[in-house]
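Please predict the structure of the following assembly.
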Amino acid sequence: MAGLFETDGGPSTAASAAAFKKGLNKVYSWYTGGFLTFIILLAIAEQMGLSRQWIGMSFLAATVLLYAGIGFITRTTDADEYYVAGRRVPALYNGMATGADWMSAASFIGMAGTLYLSGYDGLAFIMGWTGGYCLVALFLAPYMRKFGQFTIPDFLGERYGGNIPRFIGVVAAILCSFTYVVAQIYGVGLITARLAGVEFEVGIFLGLSGILVCSLLGGMRAVTWTQVAQYIILIVAYMIPVVWLSVKQTSIPVPQAIYGYQLEKVTAKEKLLTSDPKELEVRAIFKQRSADLAEKLKDPAAALAVDKAAATTKVADLKAANAPAAELAAAEKALTSLPIDAAAAKAAWSRAKAAADVKASPLNGMSPHAQQFKGDPNGDAAAQKTYDTSRRNFLALIFCLMVGTAALPHILMRYYTVPSVKEARDSVTWSLFFIFLLYFTAPALAVLVKFEVFTVLIGTPIDQLPAWVAAWNKVDPTLLSIVDINKDGILQLNEMSIGGDIVVLATPEIGGLPYVVSGLVAAGGLAAALSTADGLLLTIANALSHDLYYKMIDPNASTERRVTISKALLLVVALAAATVAAQKPADILFLVSAAFSFAAAAFFPALVMGIFWKRATGIAASLGMVAGLGTTVYYMVMNQPWLRGIFGITSPVDLWYGILPISAGVFGVPVGIAVIIVVSLITPEPSKKIQDLVDHVRYPNLLGDNRA
Amino acid sequence: MEITENHRHYWQKNLQITGILLAIWFVVTFVVGYYARELSFTFFGWPFSFWMGAQGSLVVYVVIIWYYARYMAKLDIEHGVHEGEV
């Protein structure tokens, strides 16, 4: 393996490229075989009595050592190797690496859960995170490859002339990559903690150690070959449980082809559940609770005083009656857990009322799975408005995710690593194909799990539920909890609360697979989070070392010095991100989505117009990036609850056209485009040299083109 | 470096195919998305727009990118701007 990744120094010929690819095929076939053997051996060991803890540990140790090992074999200090993997990654392998780079913990673990909870509306993520590659292929990848430098700010700096566009590019790249990497490292901590049973903070550093060794030693080269290895792990881990579950339910091993019929059954069951008398009974209880809380919220101070008096009296009565200790302790706990003051009571009761309102609505607050958008176009005015807003937000979210996909620097950077423009185009096809494999399976998984919950769990006596329900409730009650509200001993849908992540995590157990498959799924989630974190950390470190230090501060720095600085920065950035992640920031999902809107508004207009419109000028691009990013950030800060809290915004929430802050990019992108057009037309035309650069990137091979 | 008529022709054709493929992308994503409620006739068990969102559009995206790569590789050779042995 060591010899395979060695560079021969000079540019590669077609023959050596073919030999290189053949060698790769061999290495990765052996690797896949070895990985499957490892799983089978662990499965046998499990049958012979290996404990769950040890299986988890084995997966963690094996995968982290593997990633560190690849880093060690591919270590390098050569700039071309370190920044762009020597530009000789074949299209197919770059596709796999991009797939792993792209699919984060959110895709692997979160997406099927989102689809389970929101049905059709969740498909915005499926379409948004795949359709964006059309924009990558048509507008960016081939041209970026022809440009052939090292980073995305590089392109902005060369095309728009001067350090200002480059600097704005560096700032924007760091802003979106850092918000994204914090979410990944958070995911790494969660999964490692679950897999190995260690503390969350320890989990972060255990998981991080593997990728740090890897990217520190070998930069982009090591990251590329690790990501290929990680892709193989994550796709195997995703497919095995889904296929198994499909066989269990339908005896057909192709869930993607047949889950339409399961969806029909789910829809029929949804109709029954909506009017089921037992469900109505549970919902009525929650409705009553909500009404009680609304009454208390009218005058929280008085209500709190009443509650306190009642609880105190109860404790006193129990003491007087010499009640059993357990009963007394419970009463005392109830007294001490009352809110401290009226303000705290108001906050706690508002939260409780919102939760009760959800639980009082049909299907546990979920829309029917196959129903497009909320509300009703033929209903009353309110229903029509809900429908229009819901549809508008669906389309706006797709737009932001797509344009953001086409502008995230860590993805675009991957297309610098292929040998030619033609391979760059082929490579986008492979990228999307490998991503597609997971993304068209996720909706199937969501439906299969929903079918299982609706037909197997609902209506079952609570003491006869499958063992995995109790097991996951014990692991984390936010993932799964059950309360018998109407005390009939039977589970109703609205008596169960589910966290989205459980859909992927518990599938092996729902399907009745051995624990080794659960370990495999966790290892797959870890691979997804680590591979994305790898790419992001490298993007940030390179933006700082290459663009800020080498291009702007010290253009005479030697190659060795640049690579060393990049490695040092990588460590600093990783530690900074780990520190932020260890604080467990409030709203992880929002951070991830925000990164897409930031990238879309900052990069997409400037990059695409830089290639397709020669007249676009440097000043215009700088202003356009600032205006686009500024609009997006402004809209989020003004309207997103968590950011409003941080910045102390008190003015009322003012949504434009009812668009939610998660899709803020839908305003930022057009503003950016408009500013670039208007300012370009009133500033002098770019120089001949820059117009020549545009021609240079437009044609894969231009005669007399001395840059080639 | 000389941009000839041949080069302009190549770029025009590139813009043309980019425009056509982008239009298909737009229809599949946003037009079908906009009329999702209306397009819910049954399609192998799925409501049609659900199937499009979960699978159909994804297949179209892969085909768009695959076709573009193939078309452009041919166009490069026709107009003599392909990359030779580097």
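The beta strands of chain A are 480-482, 496-498. Chain A is about 75% helix and 0% strand.
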